[in-house]
Design goal:
- The chain is mainly alpha-helical and 190 residues long.
- It is built from 9 helices and no strands.
- It has helices at 4-23, 40-65, 72-86, 88-97, 102-130, 135-140, 144-159, 164-179, 184-189.
Length: 190
């Protein structure tokens, strides 16, 4: 199967996810700068989530650059990833509305963890189809960043009940870790 439909569909879903997130931030009824204050938590949660969706879009793009073909298993794995990514707007809205309180922050972490798990499943399905000698396998076989990220997500979920700010710091740290596009694949291509 050709990968172009998978890429186009994924790009469309990610664009919709970002659109839904911004639509959750309602303009204030008042026309003063003071009226913007109550939007700060929603805006900060939007910025963090926008960065996460951007990271997934970027890395998904890089990963699919080296894929020659896809099969049904990869299509379903990609849908599984898109399912978890589509929950980011809900979690984003919840942490913004409740000013980063414990339960929403832990749920946000769970959604991010499941996005990472789903991405790994997709990556592994591609490697299974393309083989151990594939560019993708050579690029990600150690996956230090992925292991650190999953550890941080797993830690941040219960830590939200100790301090939501610790969880927030971990989510920001993981985003910073991934904000630079993953060069492992590019290195293997070159």
């Amino acid at each position: 199967m050709n990968k172009s439909r998978l890429e186009a569909f994924s790009d469309g879903v990610l664009a919709i996810i970002i659109t839904i997130m911004i639509l959750e931030i309602k303009a204030p009824e008042d026309d003063s700068f003071e009226s913007l204050k109550h939007l700060i938590p929603a805006f900060l949660s939007y910025v963090l989530s926008f960065v996460y969706v951007g990271i997934y879009w970027n890395n998904h793009h890089h990963m699919l650059q080296v894929v020659k073909r896809v099969n049904g298993s990869i299509l379903w794995s990609n849908l599984f990833l898109l399912f978890w990514l589509s929950l980011i707007p809900f979690a984003t809205s919840w942490i913004g509305e409740h000013h980063f309180s414990a339960v929403p922050m832990s749920v946000y972490g769970f959604v991010l963890l499941m996005c990472a798990v789903a991405y790994n499943i997709l990556q592994n399905k591609i490697i299974k189809l393309e083989g151990k000698d594939s560019v993708l396998h050579r690029a990600v076989e150690k996956d230090f960043k992925g292991k650190i990220s999953n550890f941080c997500y797993l830690s941040a979920i219960p830590l939200a009940f100790v301090s939501p700010w610790i969880s927030g710091f971990l989510y920001i740290a993981i985003a910073i870790l991934w904000i630079v596009p993953d060069r492992r694949i590019e290195k293997q291509i070159n």
